[in-house]
Amino acid sequence: MSDLLYYIFGFVVLAAALYLMKKVASCLVKAMVAAVIALVLGVVYYLFFI
């Protein structure tokens, strides 16, 4: 019976880790997109207004 509980606990931990990684990855993707947009706007400003 203890082996079954061990596997259930492992599955729950794995599911929680994958859920947290998905949340963190989506946040990182949004941050990268924002950084690219800021860079493009900076380059456009530099090329056309300076």
Explain how this protein is built.
96% of the residues lie in helices and 0% in strands. With 50 residues, it is an all-alpha fold. It has one helix and no strands. It starts with a helix and ends with a helix. It has one helix at residues 2-49.
Give short descriptive properties of this protein.
mainly alpha, 96% helix, 50 residues, 1 helix, single chain
Largest beta-sheet details: none
Overall geometric form: rod-shaped
Portion in strands: under 5%
Termini separation: 73 Å
Radius of gyration: 22 Å
Task: Give the proportion of residues in helices.
Answer: over 70%
Number of helices: 1
Structural class: mainly alpha
Rounded average pLDDT: 85
Q: How many β strands by DSSP? A: 0
Low-confidence parts: none
Secondary-structure element sequence?
H
SSE topology:
Blueprint (H helix, E strand, L loop, with lengths): L1 H48 L1
Summarize the entry for a quick read.
96% of the residues lie in helices and 0% in strands. It has 50 residues and is an all-alpha fold. The N and C termini lie far apart (73 Å).
